[in-house]
Structure formats: structure tokens, C-alpha cells
Amino acid sequence: MWVGGVRGLMLQALHPLAIRGVWQNSDFQEDPFGRLRRTADFVGRVTYGSPQDAEEIGRRVRGIHRSLRIKDPDTGGLHRVDDPELLLWVHCAEVSSYLETARRGGLRLTDRQADRYLAEQRRSAAYVGLHPEDVPGSLAEMRAYFAAIRPSLRLTPEAASAVRFLLWPRLPEDLRHLSPGKPVYFPFGALCYYTLPAWARRMYGVLPEVPAPLVTAALAAFRFTMNQVPERVHHKAFMPSTRAMLAASRERFAAAGYDTAKGLRGLGDPRRWPARP
Fold first, then answer.
1. Which of 22, 24, 47, 48 has the alpha carbon at shortest distance from 36?
2. What are the CA-CA distances from residue 152 to residues 14, 85, 92, 155, 235 (Å)?
3. CB burial string 224-233: b at 16+ within 10 A, e below
4. Distance, CA of 56 to CA of 121 (rounded, Å)
């Protein structure tokens, strides 16, 4: 999720209006990691939260977006942050990044399962204000979407700054105690960068190219290593409200009969488990 999230932000930044919307309406320059944590909160709530959790955060996001505007320095025009085309770009860059990094990192999903994931994510798109039928719901539809939008993408000064921030971010106040380990972050940021599509890396041109098999091996090793870390340690990176939501979700899933022995990331569907003696 962390690699996919940062990759998604790097990809999203190549849309001129999308990155300018972030640049003009958020504290991304001061706290890029905070932006990632807020994204993780949204994804966590629409994935593991109750229907009420998902609806509530959807209303919150739509309310924030509704009042924000983006000034295009190229034309002098104003654009709405909740423009459907921008929302669609952000959604597709995000969910495709999660899917592609997970599969490349070793999560064994068939194409049919990947199609199902993208179809299910149409519901998360609806929470931010999109019509589900307008959102790619399969691998073929997602490929067609990226092929159509690529001519609209380009490297702006804001995008170049964003990728540098994501390769070497400024930690938020509550995580400053991790500053001594900050040099360890750069290989992680580089891994996120190298998982970008080749055309996106060519647009950025920030780091020298490395062999694709090396990136795949590093991603698989990262996923294996992180999966050895207890879930409670993972959760320390989330906002307190996210941690509380995840704890409540774990209790709710357990009460519904799910196997939560491996935490939320290892949920066992009760319909697939034999009855216990």
C-alpha cells in the first residue's frame, strides 16, 4: 500500500491541473507525508470501515473539494477541484498504482481478480463524487483510459518539485523522532519511482534507469519484509483516528465470523473456512 500510494502521487502529479490543485490548496510542500496519511485514511475507511465510515469520509471529501478552485497560470482560468475529469484521473492513478505494485510485488491475482478489484473500486470513486459507470472497471478499460489521457500529461515545475519531495520528504511534527532514519527513506522513494510506467519515468528523468527485473525483485523483497512486521507496528504510521477505525473494524469483522488471527491484511472469509469443532 505504501509503495502504491507514493507511486500514485507521483503519477497524479503529471496532470498539470491536478498537481496545481494540490499545490494551491494543500500543505503538500510542507507535509507530503501527511498527504499520504490522509490518503491512507480514505482508502482504509472505504476498504475496512463500516458503511457509515465510508459515507462520512465521502461527504467530508466532497465538501472540501466543492469549495476549492485551481488557477491555471497558462490560461488564467479557474477550474473546480471536483471537476469529474480531475477526480477520475486521481482515482485511476491511485487504484491502478495499488493494483500494479501489489501484483508486481508478488500478490497472486489473476486478470479476472484484477478486473473484479477495479470494478469494486468504482464504489470508492462514487464516494468522491464520480458516477461509477464513468470509471474504468477492468484492466482493458484502465489501459484504454491511460492511452487516451497521456497526451494531456506533462512535466510542470510543480510536478518536478513534487517528485523531489516524495524522494526526500519532510516529516510531520509527530514523526520527527524518526528523522535519524530518514536516509533509509530514499531507497523506498526510489523504489516507488522505479515502479512508475516507463513513459512516466521518461517524463520525470530524475533518476537513472535500472533493469526492470531488479526493481521487481526489490519490490518483492520489500513486500516480504514488511509482511513480517506486526500489524500493530504498521498502524503506528497512520493517524490516530485511522488506527481507532481499524481497531473497531477488526472487532466488527471478528464478531461477523471472519478469521482475524493475521489481522486485517490477512482476513479469512468465513464462507471459505470449515466449521471449527
1. 22
2. 9, 11, 15, 10, 37
3. eeeeeeeeee
4. 17
Q: Which of 24, 11, 33, 17 is nearest to 165 (CA)?
A: 33
Q: Which residue has the cell 491475482?
A: 109
Nearest to 136 by CA among 189, 99, 177, 110: 99
- Given a contact cutoff of 8 angstroms between Cβ atoms, the answer to whether 247 and 231 are in contact is no
Element (H, E) at 69: strand 69-71
Neighbours of 46 (CB within 10 A): 21
Biggest CA–CA distance in the chain, Å, is 69
Q: Which of 262, 48, 261, 259 is nearest to 270 (CA)?
A: 259
Task: For CA atoms 46, 52, 58, 60, give the dihedral sign.
Answer: negative
Give 172-227 pLDDT, tens digit per residue: 666 666 566 566 778 999 999 999 999 999 999 999 999 999 999 999 999 999 88
How many Å separate Cα 125 from the centre of its chain?
13
Q: Cell 518536478 sits at which residue?
A: 160
Q: Which of 4, 13, 223 is nearest to 98 (CA)?
A: 4
* Residues 217-261 pLDDT 10s: 999 999 999 888 888 888 888 889 889 998 999 999 889 888 888
